[in-house]
Design goal:
heterodimer, A: mainly alpha, B: about 75% helix
Chain lengths: ~270, ~290
């Protein structure tokens, strides 16, 4: 199937594709090293006159970057870990245990797969406002502590684990919680790693939920902070906005470079 | 297997079921209830029946938001599917170079919508953006795409396509692994050219994958909010006011809980319709096998 004699056009097309995705990134980085006079005078200059880190200095001066980053990472890690911790026993019960009401319980999980946070935020915001939970870490984490998708994926993965393993563990005197967290969890490592990464990346990047659940600075996340750089800045301070963009994107892109296989598998396995 | 104690399954499921029901199912019911009241968060709520829905539907405003959202979704779905399939076919080749290009395209899916939206805002900037500079070099007039009611929504769709194409490509690549090489080789031996092999072997086998990509992209783009909030705030002249942004405006800018709830209910019903379509498509794909 290798294209005999048409290698060069294919290669060129692939280069165009790469450029369509890499040039914007490059433009973001290039802009972040420019100065305001440069952007005003020669906005299209392909390279900065010299590597000026003024924009980055400005980002760190305007935003408490370390605090925002800390809040964001803490939130994303807590959500991802909670989802795994809760999905394991729930998935175990749905995949392995026989009990009345199982179909009903599984139905709830499947139904929740269809409901995005965009369809629930109005009532949840009202509830949190009434109970003074808005602007707390709880408002950011609690609604996502259980994951319908995570529960579903753990259940699917457990279906292919033979019952004998669980029976053997029971014979050895292991309690149910030991079986779930000590015996089965290690066997599901690929699924759990994918789940963690997908969940972490989604919530690290998330703009919508932190936006609607915060009204002040107390638990502001980094995506909100970077978006604020644009809202506060009047006109053409694009070098500062792009520097904020680089700071925001670098950790995820680094994670992507390290765990590319897991992330790609997680996305394509859902199909 | 039998549980060791009757309460075990429920203890294991309780946290998950309570959280899911409490934060995803119950709110829909609450929204339906609130949608019958007029409430500005300050004075006590007042029962108004269907008035919120009527006010939203007046002058076809609600229909416009729904159609606009569908239009945006249609553009994004068409764009990501075409590009995603094309790139999957192009890049389904061994070697580090092609792997690198695949990773480049997919990386946009991993980066925050905030970063993507801000980056494209800068590239589409009316005065200094490189996209405009490039278009002008090709002879196009100077337009601030995001400030033009005719172009703002397509411009947002381009951003959506750029962000989501990597996802479509990855799923199509996984689908291509299910097309047996021997079948393609047999077709080649029978004298089928590249187009005919694609048309009569690859495409039918990829149909289920395509249906999956189409429906998931539809659901994703139907919920679009970040690009609107960051790039246009629904403007100019409401040209980019998509559904979720309309809900956001009702509650946070107009302080109208009732209308926001009514919009939420309509949004949910539309999502259900899309989900029903999704189920139908997947059933069809199941029966084809």
């Amino acid at each position: 199937m290798s294209g005999r004699g048409k290698g060069l056009p294919l290669l060129l097309l692939a280069c165009v594709a790469a450029a369509a995705w890499l040039v914007p990134y490059a433009w973001m980085v290039v802009t972040s090293f420019k100065t305001l006079p440069e952007i005003v005078a020669h906005p299209g200059a392909p390279l900065p006159e010299h590597l000026d880190v003024g924009a980055y200095r400005e980002v760190f001066a305007t935003l408490p970057v370390a605090r925002y980053m800390g809040i964001t990472v803490f939130m994303a890690v807590t959500i991802a870990l909670a989802q795994i911790a809760l999905a394991l026993p729930a998935g175990y019960a749905l995949a392995k245990l026989r009990f009345v009401g199982k179909r009903w319980a599984f139905g709830v999980v499947l139904a929740c797969l269809l409901v995005p946070a965009q369809a629930t935020f109005v009532p949840v915001f009202l509830l949190f406002a009434k109970t003074h939970v808005v602007n707390t870490m709880t408002a950011l984490v609690l609604p996502f502590a259980a994951s319908a998708l995570g529960t579903f994926l753990v259940r699917q993965a457990l279906l292919s684990v033979p019952d004998e393993i669980i029976e053997a563990a029971r014979m050895d005197g292991a309690g149910e919680w030991t079986i779930v967290y000590r015996v089965l969890a290690p066997m599901l490592k690929p699924t759990l790693v994918s789940l963690f990464l997908v969940s972490f990346v989604f919530h690290y990047n998330d703009y919508f939920w932190p936006l609607v659940m915060t009204t002040d600075d107390s638990v502001r996340t980094l995506p909100l902070g970077v978006a604020l750089l644009r809202e506060q800045g009047t006109g053409v301070r694009w070098h500062i906005v792009m520097a904020g963009n680089v700071v925001l994107s670098l950790p995820v892109l680094a994670l992507f470079a390290l765990a590319q296989k897991h992330l790609v598998r997680a996305v394509s396995a859902r199909s | 297997m039998n549980p060791r104690a009757r309460w075990h399954p429920w203890a294991m499921l309780a946290p998950t079921l309570l959280l899911l029901a409490g934060f995803f199912l119950l709110p829909i019911g609450v929204a339906a209830f609130e949608s019958l009241y007029s409430w500005d968060l300050l004075t006590p709520p007042r029962y108004v029946g269907m008035a919120n829905y009527q006010a939203l539907a007046a002058h076809g405003a609600l229909l416009q938001v729904a159609l606009r959202t569908l239009g945006y979704s249609a553009m994004v779905v068409a764009g990501t599917m075409t590009l995603g399939l094309g790139l999957a076919l192009l890049l389904d080749r061994p070697g580090r170079f092609f792997g690198f290009v695949r990773a480049s395209v997919f990386s946009a899916y991993v980066v925050s919508w905030v970063a993507v939206a801000l980056l494209w805002m800068w590239m589409l900037d009316g005065n200094a953006g490189i996209a405009g500079t490039l278009l002008r070099a090709l002879g196009a007039p100077r337009v601030a795409l995001l400030g033009d009611p005719a172009w703002a929504l397509p411009a947002l769709a381009v951003v959506g396509v750029w962000k989501l194409t990597g996802y479509a490509m990855i799923v199509f690549l996984a689908g291509l692994q299910g097309v047996p090489r021997s079948l393609l080789e047999a077709a080649a031996l029978d004298g089928a050219g590249a187009w005919n092999r694609f048309r009569h072997v690859t495409m039918p086998l990829l149909a289920p994958t395509a249906a999956f990509v189409a429906t998931t992209s539809l659901v994703t783009s139907f919920q679009a909010f970040d690009v609107v909030r960051i790039m246009t705030q629904g403007g100019p002249a409401r040209a980019t006011e998509l559904f979720v942004y309309a809900i956001y405006e009702q509650i946070f800018l107009n302080l109208s809980v009732g209308r926001a709830s009514a919009l939420t209910v309509v949004f949910f019903v539309l999502l259900l319709a899309v989900a029903a379509l999704q189920l139908r498509v997947w059933r069809m794909r199941g029966s084809e096998r």
